[in-house]
Specification:
Two copies of one chain form a homodimer. Chain A is mainly alpha-helical and about 325 residues long. The first copy, chain A, is about 75% helix and about 0% strand. The first copy, chain A, has a two-stranded antiparallel ribbon. In chain A, strand 1 and strand 2 form a beta hairpin. At the A-B interface, helix 5, helix 7 and helix 8 of A face helix 5, helix 7 and helix 8 of B.
Chain lengths: ~325, ~325
């Protein structure tokens, strides 16, 4: 971890805590507790493992810094993108019936769905309030532009979430549907983080566009890699059982590519329930129909597009080096 | 209905449709349909009965108009407060397990909770995007101030919602807890509607404060009346079975007042399940312990405070008359 990132991390946590402290009021303290639990600060299992990687705020702050603007001024926006991310996770966990998040019981498991819905709502509201704090350090038109970008992203998120849920019952999902879903669910917020970072950094139009585009392709590459790891990942490295995406019947890119072949994998998928016992066979069948190489090639393409975009943005200084470094780690991850 | 309100109503619907049209995209049309169903425009039972009264946008527009500003410019804010209201209703219906809303099956009943959570989220996002549209007609600092007011209100809503849910399992709820919950759940958004209307109308500070305060007390009076109607309302007039709040064991103001007496009503409440057969007895018992007159007096006090505030604001012109008229109808309702 480079020095600048080490100095950003505690400031991000402080800013998040400051934003969540809007719930500091005797009567709502048990409610605040549900938010701080989810954010990884309180409750059983609290600590670094439970907070998540804070990738979105880091991307935002590094982008602002490399544009030559004091990144500390952008902290409310960094908190805002992280709060949006966590709002979507809390609701996602209810929608997907997920029992665990970052190794701990999810909010809905601990407090029930009605309260968990409210926790997600409050995280979103706190994000919106955080954005208004930018007005003390930035011109109001730039603040409003940032608000607009973030809200447009939130609309993309809900649309992506709708598509994702609708895929479950559909048998006609195509690769282009996949891209639309992933653009909304994963790429949009990563893109907005870089985009807002550049806007607050007062970058010129073409640089802003380069950062926006970098975040977008980073998100797509990230998701496609995730799809690969979810089927052929090394269990010992990823920490989750390999091929679990197949058992959960997730319509990931390799699966859609495989189904498109209408060959042995499609036959298997449509007729045999995939269990821990036959999942390795299913994964091999899928690879034998070139779905592994196909998806790998696409991940490579998206990675190249992301790298081209960030080279175009040409990040400078210590923050620039750290940003290139972070991009590199995100684009070549094995976990 | 006065002339100015008749001309506002269709414009409010148009603006809402314009805001919701952000979901016009082939792939998200079935999702958009869920929002338009909830807003009363599509699906079985669509029509005036299903749209709700649009009280919040009317209050906002009338306030702006009476300050001498063209109310049409404030339409995006009017849509925004109505969208926030509906976002909270959709989530509330899931949280309360409510099967019906405005006489029709609720969104979660029709499409399941996971999608309904997403519908509420999208309504909230659309509200936030609507607010950014104000920038084309108002100075950005006034837009940001309005955004801040609305988001602070949304935080009050989630806090009020938390308190409401926590009351269900608590046996120690006091009258002061009730006020805190109602201030968040009901009064805050009515207050924000008037407050934002006055800010956009560029009213002076004391007038802004008078409108804000009017909305606040209007909300409290409205809720206390609702509590009375929910126990002693005329079934033939309210359209819902009288005393249903007692059967649902809602901790309304009259109930909390009655429980505070620790007399025969408290005894009944704590030991006998309230059913359609004994609910009339329970309502009479509650009235005999002065809970009816107590609550009625409080409703009168809140109404007086609301009227004092609006008199202080001194609304002018046709919009002013219409606002006084609307306030009067809301404060002396029987349904």
């Amino acid at each position: 971890m480079t020095d600048i990132i080490s100095s950003m991390r505690p400031e991000i946590e402080n800013e998040l805590m400051h934003q969540v402290s809007r719930l500091d009021e005797e009567h709502s303290l048990p409610f605040k507790e549900m938010l701080t639990y989810h954010l990884g600060w309180t409750g059983e299992g609290a600590g670094e493992e439970a907070t998540g990687k804070r990738i979105r705020p880091l991307l935002l702050l590094l982008t602002t810094a490399t544009c030559g603007t004091d990144w500390k001024k952008a902290l409310p926006a960094a908190a805002a993108v992280e709060l949006v991310h966590n709002f979507s996770l809390v609701h996602d966990d209810i929608q997907d019936n997920s029992p665990k998040r970052r190794g701990r019981p999810t909010v809905w498991v601990k407090w029930g769905s009605p309260l968990a819905i409210n926790v997600g709502d409050a995280l979103f509201v706190l994000s919106n309030l955080a954005m208004t704090d930018l007005a003390s350090d930035f011109p109001t038109d730039r603040v409003l532009e940032s608000v607009r970008i973030l809200q447009q992203t939130c609309l993309d998120l809900t649309r992506g979430q709708y598509l994702d849920m609708s895929f479950e019952d559909r048998t006609d999902v195509k690769v282009e549907d996949y891209w639309m879903m992933v653009a909304g669910k994963t790429a949009s917020l990563l893109s907005a983080s870089c985009h807002i970072g550049a806007i607050l950094g007062n970058a010129d139009e073409s640089t802003v566009e380069a950062y926006r585009s970098f975040g977008h392709f980073l998100g797509l590459a990230f998701q496609v890699q995730d799809d690969i790891l979810g089927i052929w990942g090394d269990e010992n490295v990823t920490g989750k059982s390999a091929a679990s995406d197949l058992i959960e019947r997730k319509k990931t890119l390799p699966v859609l590519a495989g189904l498109g072949k209408q060959g042995p994998f499609a036959e298997f998928w449509n007729n045999v329930p995939i269990t821990p016992d036959n999942v390795e066979e299913a994964a091999k069948l899928l690879a034998s129909e070139s779905a592994y190489t196909y998806t790998h090639d696409i991940a490579k393409q998206m990675t190249d597009l992301a790298i081209n975009s960030i080279r175009e943005a040409d990040p400078q200084g210590e923050a620039g080096d750290a940003l290139m470094d972070l991009a590199d780690r995100l684009l070549h991850r094995t976990t």
